[in-house]
Amino acid sequence: GRAGAIATMSTFRVGHATHPRWSMALEMALAQVGTGTATPADEPGALGIVYLTDALGASVPEVLAALRGRCGVRHWTAASAPAICATGVEYADEPALVLMVADLPRGSFEPFPGPPRKGREAPGAPGTLPATALIHVDVGLTDVGEQIPELASRVRERALFGALASAVGGPGSRAGVDGVGFSEDVRLITGLTQGCSAIGAEHRITACSGQMVESLDGRPALDVLLADLDVRLPPASARDGEAILRALPAQRLREGRFVGRGRDVSSRRPGFGDYAVRSGVGIDPSRRLIAIGEIPREGEHLVFCTRDRDAAHRDLVRIVAELRDEVEQAGQTVAGALYHSCVARGSHLFGSQGAELATIRHHLGDVP
User: Fold this and answer.
1) Which neighbouring-strand residues pair with 99?
2) 237-295 confidence digits (pLDDT tens)
3) How many CA atoms within 13 Å lie on the side-chain side of 225?
4) What is the DSSP letter of 218?
5) Which of 33, 128, 153, 180 is 20 to 30 Å apart from 39, CA to CA?
């Protein structure tokens, strides 16, 4: 999936470049944002975000040191990934970096998670937590599943957005996690697009154990899956695992089998993108169970789904349109956008490099 965030303040500045030497790429990017003087004037309300491709990822500490010494932006967060993007361009399999300077109200952000401040109240106390936070988490962490809930507890309404990354760095860095916490003075709107299309109707998990979903709506889970896929088997093959797999519509499921899980759909906006999507990892034909790539809970909502280019395009248009409408209804304008991607997307899913960014630009406008 991907998470987006929009801030509605003064327009942000973006620079990007590709070069085998990080220092040269940095110089070209800084020239585009109009900062980087030899004797910088401090910009107390400026936040810097820098992303590098993995070809330059080992240089994250050097890049951050150079940025703090070369320009007036003192606060930076950084991460590297296999591919990065900027306004209308994507970089993959080449050394590149992109940086954004966001001009925000003074005192409206701070390093996250960061060390506890002296005199700070206990986590969760009213008025002490940021309203939301951008986080970058090192993909090499072995306890990511435990880290995310703990980090979410440090944010009001548990509102986190961001991405896993190959490497992270910045003032808030703590054991592979770095980011920025924002106060209510920064107007942010977030959205999530899964790029999937639903197969059949939404169901309720009525029995489960471990990673196994035993029943949906009171019926055996495997029977519900086959019904949603319109697969009909002769009685002699009903418990033959190989026969069941052969009967599945291979073309329809060519990009994989997934399940979408939603805990409290009644309080969320309608739309498939509000679900957390996980892989479907197996079936048990004798006990009529399905296994998913996460631990389900009884009472949750579940929908079977698949991923393909058309579904991804439609869902991307949907979420960008929702974000744009929310901004317009508030009578505001978009200052800048952050777009965090999954390695399974990009040209792998959308067919050509730049197609994904072109869709966003067409529907959101020419924003940094």
Assistant:
1) 15, 50
2) 778 788 888 877 766 676 667 888 875 544 344 445 557 788 887 889 889 999 998 88
3) 31
4) T
5) 180
Take residue 71 and report the two structure tokens written for it.
Answer: 């320009």
Q: Can you give the length of the chain in residues? A: 368
| DSSP letter assigned to residue 142 | T
Q: How far apart, in whole angstroms, are the C-alpha atoms of residue 53 and residue 95? A: 6
Q: Assign 105 to helix, strand or coil.
A: coil
Q: Which residues pair with 110 in a beta bridge?
A: 181
User: What whole-number distance in Å separates Cα of residue 71 and Cα of residue 64?
Assistant: 11
Bond from prior residue into 116 cis (ω within 30 degrees of 0): no
Span 138-185, pLDDT tens digits: 888 877 777 888 888 889 878 889 988 998 887 666 678 899 999 999
Name the percent of the chain lying above pLDDT 90. Answer: 34
Instruction: Write down the pTM of the prediction.
Output: 0.77
Contact 112, 181 (CB under 8 A): yes
Distances (CA, A) of 69 to 26, 33, 114, 178: 12, 16, 22, 20
Structure tokens that stand for 277 in this block: 């999507």
